[in-house]
Amino acid sequence: MSNSVSEPRRTAAAVGAPRGAGSKTPKQGKTMLGAEAVVASLEAEGVDTVFGYPGGQAIKLYDALYDSQQINHVLARHEQGAVHMADGYARSTGRPGVAIVTSGPGATNTVTGIATAYMDSVPLVVITGQVPRAVIGTDSFQESDIVGITMPVVKHSFLLQSTDELTRTIREAFHIAVTGRPGPVLIDVPSDLAGAKMVFEYPDEVNLPSYKPTYRGNAKQVRAACKLIDASKRPLLYVGGGVISANASEELAALSSLMQIPVVTTLMGKGGVPASHPLNLGAVGMHGAKYSNLAMTECDLLIACGARFSDRVTGRLSEFAPFAQVIHIDIDPAEIGKVREAQVPIVGDLKGVLAAMVEQLRKDGAAPADSEWLERIGKWHERYPFYHPNVGDATDEIVPEVVLKKLSDKLDPRASIVTTEVGQHQMWAHQFVDREVPRSFLSSGGLGTMGFGFPAAIGAAVAHPRKTVVCIAGDGSFQMNSQEMATASINGANVKVLILDNRCLGMVHQWQKLFYDKRYSQTLLEPVPDFVKLADAYGWQGRRIADPAQVDAALDEMLASEGPYLLDVAISREQNVYPMVAPGAALDNIMGAIDVAVGAVRTDMPAGAQNPPTVSPCAQLDAQFGGRWEFNPEDVGQRMERSAAEAAGLAQKTAPEAGEEA
Question: For residues 44 and 169, what is the distance between their CA atoms, to the nearest angstrom?
Fold first, then answer.
């Protein structure tokens, strides 16, 4: 490996230099307005695209932007959309996304986008106009304390007080956003400073004594981790979004291959390991594969790489990976030990740490454990596959798993980017859309932001005009920011939107079905709007399908189209995302996993059950898989609030007699 513990990742940002011209810009030393200095600073940082929406207190910034020959501005139709676009740009490129908005409601409309980026460690620089310094705190027109409002969801924030600090502040903002654990930084610019004259001097260096991210992993801890790996019989790599942020995919694959360690990935880690890699088990957690969850439960060593032990991965924490010692590698020391104690904590850049581990293991002559662990996982994989060719055979309705599997097969994984909204469709995409390279799957993981995926797709399409960009959406999520169809149309963003349209808020509807006695409170949506007519109104192409025989041709038409395209795919409200770990349940307590031992149907046989039935006892519940159990026969879908006694009584009252069909 070219990297070692003595050679941590050294990007221009990591050593404190701008990514653009910096002080070598031709504008250095010139007198200009503060607003012009803001734009010149963005140019000095190498920014080529800004997303935003103008307003009264940002008008000077926009006036200065008018003259920029370097920066392309994408006008969103809502400030939240603008920040999500900047986020999609950042996730797909690795460069910081930039958004500019005005004060008051313009600034407050950015909060959801900023929080989304913060939760998923995405580098953003958000510049907000502010009322003049003299009236801050007087409740003047369109004033809001955006620094105070966003303080919990930014990596850092600045309220400019003088033109003397303007260029230094912007230099620091970009440095903070992209170094260490990436995240959003906010700069609030009072409009009187934007109109004040100053001499433009852009610094190349950053001096932040209190901010020194640790890149080099402790050598003693690296050696300790390698000893655990060498001694382990059932090791597992648990990979999160940090592998993508650190550009550490090659090093991760090298460690996995060297020691024959299987890999499970979080939603944020998808694409960090090629789907085709023979040791990649794929999705883990609440809607992960049964074989991945069993591997997590049975492993004796868990190597967490840039992952934060989210509750959607761990399930019931007291029963999570009960036999495992933990190696936790993260550049953010606050994450280590926050949820699960680590026997070997390593703070550092994942790329350098993994490379050092590979080097140390080779030096020690370490060898993989015997093949028993991989053979065991292989048997789970064969018995509990994510997908089965018979899915959809017994129904005349479109099955979402089939649609997304077909879409995956039609996409070039190296020349496409997939974004998702949030809900059932997001989990189906995670399960069935294969990704081979990092930064090709963009999804809101930590915050679960409905309305993220579509504007993020626009940001990705602007950054990668030659790639196919597909947003997988639900009809509920898409309507959160559907006004950005105008942005896509006007800016020529070649985005494709595939709506899995079940006319309900699918994931909440599923929980109501399984755990709340089918009390569908406010999750059923009326059949409005007509998405094809909406597409036409915005100058898009569009089509609606409801017949499984139409799926292939419709996908081909969407992918071959020039310009934005919306494909509205009608699916049943009764479709559920499986497998599923119920909220609060242990990770190996999995319902809805396909089990080829009982006829390739979905079943939630209790873990460890002996002599599984040859036919699903609930064959009439859902014919699309030849039958499935939707919940444990003893769990009749009781509401979470009921007491255990009530639940037990209800189960006894409704339980079928022996030999009777459920």
Answer: 13
* Strand pairing category for 72-75 and 49-52: parallel
| H or E element in which residue 238 lies | strand 235-239
Identify which of 544, 463, 455 has the alpha carbon closest to the alpha carbon of residue 501: 544
Residue 153 backbone dihedrals phi, psi, to 5 degrees: -125, 25
* C-alpha count within 13 angstroms, C-beta hemisphere, residue 482: 22
List, in order of start, the domains of the chain with CATH numbers. 22-200 (3.40.50.970), 219-383 (3.40.50.1220), 389-570 (3.40.50.970)
pLDDT in tens, 21-72: 999 999 999 999 999 999 999 999 999 999 999 999 999 999 999 999 999 9
Residues in Cβ contact with 365 at an 8 Å cutoff, skipping those fewer than 6 apart: none
Query: Residue 75 in contact with residue 85, Cβ under 8 Å?
Result: no
User: What are the b/e assignments for 542-580, b being 16+ CB within 10 Å?
Assistant: bbbbeebeebeebbeebbebeebbbbbbbbbbebbbbbb
The pLDDT tens digits of the residues spanning 232-273 come to 999 999 999 999 999 999 999 999 999 999 999 999 999 999
How many other C-beta atoms can be found within 10 angstroms of the C-beta atom of residue 523?
18
Torsion of CA 458, 39, 114, 16, to 10 degrees: 110
Tokens of 501: 């349209």
Cβ count near 455 (within 10 Å): 33
Dihedral sign from CA coordinates of 520, 525, 526, 532? negative
